[in-house]
Write a structure and sequence with these properties.
By secondary structure, the chain is of the alpha+beta class. It has two helices and eleven strands.
Length: 165
């Protein structure tokens, strides 16, 4: 748990260099464009949904910076399924069930920014190539802390990977 919030579960398969190879089971997610951002997702979990249901905040927040528009995603608590997740009222918020996947995770501290993220991404690519791990060139950034947490901040870059059979 980060800051007392439910945290997305995963299983560490093994460690290679500075990477943890992880399996993430499927979960329900709420997604919007970076332009719509945090406020749209926060309104959704605050009750701006078809059930007017308040949904607990979780960690981490997923940031996809690979496309021109980019996206921000909240992980919904484990208690939510396709059957019981309220639909968003706002058209710019989408709710979906993620695919179960394997990722290589690279952790870093402090506040994140594009320069730091790019540095971790480049370093991650070298490590994955060194260990002959096939990866997608579409990493995502995970942010675990609120902007008001100043110390002991946790962030990660995740690369979708193929686990050899």
């Amino acid at each position: 748990m980060a800051q007392g919030y439910e945290t997305q579960s995963y299983e560490v398969i093994k460690t290679v260099g500075e990477a943890e190879l992880r399996y993430y089971p499927s979960v329900m997610m709420a997604k919007t464009s970076v332009n719509s951002g945090f406020s749209s997702l926060f309104r959704y979990i605050s009750g701006n949904n078809t059930s007017q249901q308040k949904i607990s905040m979780t960690t981490p927040v997923h940031m996809d910076r690979n496309s021109k528009e980019g996206s921000m995603e909240f992980v919904l608590p484990k208690s939510f399924t396709k059957e019981n997740t309220p639909k968003p009222i706002a058209g710019n918020v989408k709710v979906y069930e993620s695919e179960a996947k394997y990722y290589a995770a690279f952790s870093f501290g402090g506040y994140t920014n594009s320069r730091k993220e790019q540095s971790i991404i480049e370093k991650g690519k070298l490590i994955l190539k060194e260990y002959n791990i096939s990866f997608s060139d579409a990493p995502i950034v995970l942010v675990y802390n609120s902007p008001y947490t100043f110390f002991n901040r946790k962030n990660e870059v995740l690369f979708p990977i193929e686990i050899p059979k």
